[in-house]
Amino acid sequence: MKILEVKGLMKNYGKSEILKDVNFEVNTHEVIGFIGPNGAGKTTTMKCISGLTGFHQGSIQVDGHDIKKDRIEALKYQTSMIEGPALYPELSGKENIKLFASLRGVSKERVDEMIEMTKLGKNINRKVSQYSMGMKQRVGLAISLMSNPKLIMLDEPTNGLDPSGVIDLLTLVKELATKEEIGILFSSHTLADVEKIADRIIFIKDGQLIDESQFVKDQSIVYEVKTEEDINDILKDQFVFEYNEVVKTYTIRLEKKEDLNELLQLFSKNQVTVLDISKVEQSIEDVYKDIYYD
Predict the structure, then answer these.
(1) Residue 282: predicted pLDDT
(2) What is the C-alpha end-to-end distance of the chain, expressed in Å?
(3) Are strands 2-13 and 16-27 parallel, antiparallel or unpaired?
(4) Which of 4, 129, 261, 284 has most Cβ atoms within 10 angstroms of its Cβ?
(5) What is the pLDDT of residues 55-93, one digit of tens each?
(6) Are 22 and 45 in contact (CB under 8 A)?
């Protein structure tokens, strides 16, 4: 089910175009990775969606409610953590959760559920000023979820977290998308974090979304084959390949998955001893480099 639809979004600061015809959508139970370098337009897009800043053209709908024409309803069905959770440092985690619950008319049962979700145990009663960034992020997420939103936006939520904090947060985000009736838009500079939990990834550069398919190398399938034999003559008439003499490995590009069987039959027919064969996946880092490194 579509929970967010962004169409033709454009925003200017003076004569500078910050967002240029941005179009995408987020569905329920999806985690969408939002990737781009500083200044690409990620945070500005999220601020437009959350009503924190205006835009000049286009439309944003949250659960079918237009952010301009039906602002209250559009905001009602979303929540966000942009540039870190805003908590009261002299209150405990529990007191912060209860305070925001009272402002939103949230039931005691839902408050208890959110306190349990933080997994802070006795630490829930400590002042937030004594919390690690990971603990603050969990309290922030609990507050964000209290009113049963359908869209959550997280802007760089793993910043400042230690490795265990990153793992805990990513696990929690994925669980939320699976169990709750929500969609999540998640930005991060740590590509490995996005790759671990994202169902889809969108790339933004200079205020424009990028069609990453053009950077995925011709959609072919690549295998690395290690052998101590010279198989150049065997391969040259049928396959596109490269040879790394240092590690004695052939990188062979197949047009379709059925070609693997043909390759293996070719090896068998010519009695080639294959020491190792493995499929090479193009990583998100590879795509990122192709898009952003000129």
Answers:
(1) 66
(2) 37
(3) antiparallel
(4) 4
(5) 999 999 999 999 999 999 999 889 888 767 889 999 999
(6) yes
23 and 90 assigned to the same domain:
yes
Domain match, 254 and 157 both: no
Eight-class DSSP state of 229: S
Element (DSSP H or E) covering residue 101: helix 93-104
Please give the pLDDT value at position 214: 54
Nearest to 63 by CA among 48, 81, 53, 76: 76
Position of tokens 């190792």? Answer: 276
Global confidence as pTM? 0.73
Residues with Cβ within 8 Å of residue 137, at least 6 apart in sequence = 81, 85, 157, 161, 165, 169
Mean of pLDDT values over 264-278: 90
C-alpha–C-alpha distance, residues 156 and 207, integer Å? 18
Residues in the chain: 294
Q: Parallel, antiparallel, or unpaired for β 31-35 and 183-187?
A: parallel
Q: Write out the residue range of the structural domain in which residue 16 sits.
A: 2-214
Q: What is the mean pLDDT of residues 154-167?
A: 82
**Residue appearing with tokens 């169409």:** 7
| CA distance linking residue 126 with residue 121, whole number of Å | 10
Three-class SS of residue 152? strand
What pLDDT does residue 294 have? 62
